[in-house]
Structures are given as structure tokens and as C-alpha cells.
């Protein structure tokens, strides 16, 4: 374990040094003073523009609002989770960090002592303590909370283009039986349009697992921790997903889909349906309109399996704000976290950019600048719908976006009735699990992909997984989890 940790540290230093120049750490300064803090975020966040100058402008504007000097650490979205792990391992830690897929990754950072508990800060914060306690309970580890939710709990489901449903006479409802869905989606001509897609992250398969009562991870069932992947429920779900793939209903390239390309394919009409977040309605409506491919978008919240099980893909605390254990100014870092999570002005800057740089306002209506457009900036309110607080921008959106507001709000409320299960991975209950958690996650996704693609059979794939599970002392991991006493 120590040798493995040492190897990761050495490797991380080499890799990180080539990516970032983070500068000297600042000394501790009293709360309220202007200090420098390094903020680590994906390159798709800084006003959604990937131009370095525009990203620096966002950092500067947030700094001015919080009386801080913000040093941006911009990490490619496609590599974010991996690079963040390397940063923590190397000791070259940013001060404030957005942890993506927090339900999977945050527990490991806690176990390794890489982030600090925030209970005392939350208790003293009017905004943070007003958050629904359930949002903290998702990842309360040994009774402590180590994060502030980036936004409201995230859910995913299917967005379906109304024009495609009409063209191919496909009947789409808010919830559909698995066979009903298969028969309807078969009507779409896969030679003309991709019927169903999702980004390459295999976590998205959980949307289908829910219909069969499966959960592809370690979780607690009937008071006992089990490995949910190698179960009859997940096996049945994988057979169904492969059926979708073999019928060319499921995108034949799903294992390589990037988020941005997948979304573009849906709003331009190259795809009929896609799994995406509940707050994407305004995004799809406005982009479909501006691309000349206008359509209504229908939410299909859940599949219902043969035993009546169902639910959206519930990512719960998908993203979280945390403070590094090496931060020299945790008080001021929490000030920044509060602003990022709860300040409407800061949220507006971070999500849509800086006025006159990312967007301009004419006759009260805002629109992207040419520079922001050229860097792929997405100028719409979709991200703001998921914020922990209400955000009112000082301008109007374009007509298409304004019209979608009411529907987006209705969807955000309606989706709660279809919420699927979500569980934190209990790495704090097992040192063995803490050591292998990410590798076993990767193995599950590899096996699932191979089964769906047909490069291995269900039986051979699960046999391979069982052999792997035993090689990493899987039964001992479950024993540790089940015997853990807080």
C-alpha cells in the first residue's frame, strides 16, 4: 500500500507539473483579508467558455465579489476526475475544489485525509445550514460532512425530440414498460437517425438497471452490504441493454460519446433521444432553435421493469465543493465556497460569464459575444435552474429561451416523483475497499460494456468479474463493511 502510494505521488508530480503552474502557497491571513486561493474546476465551467482570457476574467470577477485573488486551475472536463486524484496524491493541492461524481469519489478523499470536515463552518453559515439536511446525509461519513452541495441533487432521464416521435409515430410517455419502450423505439429508422444515445460514462447504465431493481455497486440491502453488480437484477438489465444495442436502438458508438457532441447531436436532430440532466430543457430548446432544428423535447422519466421497479438515474450529490486539507486559509476558502454555492451574482458569473466579455445586452436582451461563441460557450439558463438558490439575472433571454422557463420549472418539480435510488460507496467502512474502489468501478464498467457490445457473453463476463472480485478479496471487503462500527 505504501509503495503504491509512493509510486502515485512520484507519477503525479511529473504529470501535474507539466499541466499546471500553481505558484507559491499564501501564508495564513485573517478572515476577511484579500488572500490568494487556487480554485480547481473543469474547463467547461468558467462561464462555459474555454478561452483562457475569458476564464481568467471569470476568476477575476469572482475574486472581486469575494475580496479574494482567485487563481484558476483549469482542468479538461474529460480528464477532470483522473487529474484531480493525481493532484491530491502529489500534494500539489488546490484550495477549493469541485469534486465531480462525488458519490463515487469524495469518500476516498475523506479516507485519505485530503479534504477537511465542514460541519463547524456549515453550522455558522445561514445559507449552508439552510440546505435540506438530506443533501448532506447522502455523504455523511463517520457523522461528519466534508462538502457543500454544488447544486440540487442531480437526476437524469431521457429527453426525446417531439419531431422525431411524430415522424416515426413513436408514442412516448413519462414512464414506459421496458418492452413497450423497445417496441416503440424500434419504429425509428436507425439508418436515418440514432434512436437513443448517452455520453460514454458507463455510469449512465444505471438508468436501465433501475428498471430491473439492480444497483451496480456496493450498497446496503435489507440491512446488509452486498456487491450489486454480479446479481440477477443487473444481469437481467444487461441482457435488455444488449437487446437495445443489437436492434440498433442504442447508439453503436455510445462508448466513445463525449458530452458536448452527444448534446449537439440531440439538438441538431441527429439523435432522437438522449439521457441527460433534468435541467436541460431550456438548453435543448434554445440550441435547437438557434441551429435551425427547432423541436419540442419530451421527458421520459423512467423505464418500468417486469417486476414494477423503476426510477430516474439519481446521481444525488453529483458535484460538491470541498476544501483541501493543505489549504492555509480555510476560513476564507469557505467564504469562497459559500459564494460559489449560494451567491446569485457569483453563480451568474460562473455559469454564464462576465458582461461585455461573455455576453452583451441590447434592448434588455442578452446574447453571447462572438468570442464566447467561438469557444463553444453555452449561453442559457439551464445551469442556473439547478442552483441551491433562486437566481434572477438582470436581463431577458432570447424569445425561445424565455418561452421554455415555465416548462423547465415544471419538469424540475415533476421529476421528484420518479427519483431512483442513490447510495454512497462505503469506503470509510473498509480499508480494502478504499484501496481498490476506483479500480473495481472501472472493472464493472469494462465488463458491462463488453457484454453490451457483444465482445463477451454475459456468462463469460460475469465469470471474469467474479474471478477479479475474488482476487481483490471482495468477500473480505463486504465482511469489513458489514462488521463496521461507527
Structure description:
The protein has 21 helices and 16 strands. It is an alpha/beta fold and 486 residues long. The protein folds into two domains: 2-153 and 317-352, Periplasmic binding protein-like II (D-Maltodextrin-Binding Protein, domain 2, 3-Layer(aba) Sandwich); 155-314, Periplasmic binding protein-like II (D-Maltodextrin-Binding Protein, domain 2), CATH 3.40.190.10. The strands form five sheets. The chain has a five-stranded mixed beta sheet.
Short description:
The protein has 486 residues and is of the alpha/beta class. 44% of the residues lie in helices and 15% in strands. Helix 12 packs across helix 13 (281-290) and helix 19 (431-453) packs antiparallel against helix 20.
Distance between the termini: 24 Å
Number of helical elements: 21
Gyration radius, rounded: 23 Å
CATH fold-level topology of the largest domain: D-Maltodextrin-Binding Protein, domain 2
Return the average pLDDT rounded to an integer.
89
Return the domain count: 2
User: Percent helix among the residues?
Assistant: 40-55%
Label the CATH architecture of the largest domain.
Answer: 3-Layer(aba) Sandwich
Structural class: alpha/beta
